[in-house]
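Subgroup meeting minutes
Present: P.N., E.W., G.H.
Scribe: E.W.

1. P.N. recapped why we're keeping a running log of single-chain structure predictions: easier to compare across weeks, and new members can see raw inputs and outputs side by side.
2. G.H. added today's entry (287 aa).
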Amino acid sequence: MDTNSGKGIMKRKVVVSECAHNHIKSCNTLIYNKIGFLSNRCLWPGAVMGLALLMAGCRMVTHGPKSASGCEDTCAFAMPVGEYNYNLPCRIISIHPEQEGKAVLFLWLHGGVKVRNAHDLFMENHFDYCEADDIIVNYLRENNMKAIALLPICYKAVNPKCISWDECYDDVKHIIDDFVDKGLVDKRRIYLAGSSDGGNGAWDYAAGHPDVFAAVIAMSCTDLKETAIPVFFFNTSDEPDCTAEVEALTRKGCPIRYRHCPEYSHGGDAAECTDELLRTYFGYSKP
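Output recorded in log:
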């Protein structure tokens, strides 16, 4: 694992060789963290082993779970041989990689970025604020869609006080570009979703970078922005009803589908990610 700097940001390089490729193919979910090793969901036993290997100058790659048939999960991740540079930790899930053609790319922005202990890289609580990411990944798997899900962590090693997704956009886009440039994903079909702080980050990305994303889901948030791309927007009894703001934006031509969900508390609007909604969401593509 090498490091190099560019534009004042430390970049980590992962070199995938032919001999490592067979191991990496069987990884179900990976995190590449700021200290340079790969682990499966960063559970504590894996973290302890990873630290031991790191001290020995090694990189750890763990295997994904077996299915009932004894085969590796069909969500196994397969990286082609090459170099990958990441500027922030990122969990990666590859869905139906055995299929031909380029994958759909799904980007999830987690909530809780203002909770400092949520940035502990050996804990999973970045992903525990909402069930929507699991719902969407399961939809892709069950509908036999070839996809790559990117779940970055809102963190900058060079700026540990970073508490907004907007500040991490360049790093997130760097990872997206890496997958696009390597021909792994269809750049017309890049989808964005987030909840809570991640929902506000989704609005920021949709407004600032409408050329990148085909459609957006923003949940449990209130920080609406003017955007030209379709947004599916929900919030709960813990957030104010944003009907008036949505109507003002739709009069400007913003394609927003909104429902205030007083029957849910914060994060509970993940239930709005129904199969019907997700069929519409993934039905959008860039020209």
